[in-house]
Design brief:
about 220 residues, alpha+beta, Nucleoside Triphosphate Pyrophosphohydrolase
């Protein structure tokens, strides 16, 4: 998979938007979901028991092609310490997912909202910790300046969109939970950045939305 096979400019935005749900939607209660348990046959929890959240899949428009904005979570956080993540967090009451994603990206890495053009929503993702995450896909115009919030983010980096959309770059891995249960998950490594769990699952679900092929 490489950017050479994709449309360019406004045609690329339109092509991606055509494969996503409208920006103004909320996570659909009856629609398809991905989850932390997809590889284990876990059906997940009822929607009314989940906490709504959103993340930004920021597609940065570079001369060499698209890249995706990612962070490494602070080592001082209580949960998911040091893991690679997409900017995002819990939805505030009354917020749409795109509003949450832009607010959280601004709070976490200082990305000014006017640099981002949201184009659609990808498949909601349910975590084992009880969150239903709506991925908001947005094109990010170059020229921004980023500053990590030291309480939440240890590092900010970009990974090529083409790499993240290539199924062959992912491997199934597993680890034991504190409960003793073994959980399988997808993972990929690029430039020594280990991307796994919910972040890898969200990106793979986006690939399936865009290209239509079930991922094995």
């Amino acid at each position: 998979m490489n950017d050479a096979g994709l449309p360019h400019g406004s045609d690329l935005r339109d092509w991606i938007a055509d494969h996503l749900d409208p920006v103004g939607d909320h996570a659909c209660e009856g629609g398809p979901r991905s989850s932390d348990g997809d590889l284990d046959g876990w059906s997940g929890m009822p929607v009314d028991q989940l906490t709504a959240a959103a993340v930004l899949i920021g597609l940065i428009e570079r001369d060499h092609g698209l890249s995706v904005l990612l962070t490494r979570r602070s080592d001082t956080l209580r949960n998911h310490t040091g893991q690679v993540a997409l900017p995002g967090g819990r939805q505030d009451p009354g917020e749409k997912p795109w509003q949450t994603a832009l607010r959280e990206a601004h709070e976490e890495v200082g990305l000014e909202p006017h640099f981002v053009s949201p184009v659609g929503l990808s498949t909601p993702y349910q975590t084992g910790s009880g969150y239903l995450i709506t991925p908001v896909v947005g094109f990010v115009r170059p020229g921004f300046t980023l500053t990590p919030n030291p309480g939440e983010v240890a590092d900010i980096f970009e990974t090529p969109f083409s790499w993240l959309m290539e199924p062959a770059n992912y491997q199934q891995q597993e680890r034991q939970l504190p409960s003793g249960e073994t959980r399988r998950f997808w993972a990929t490594t690029h430039d020594d950045r280990y991307i796994w769990g919910a972040t890898a699952g969200i990106l793979r679900a986006l690939r399936e939305r865009l290209y239509g092929a079930a991922l094995g």
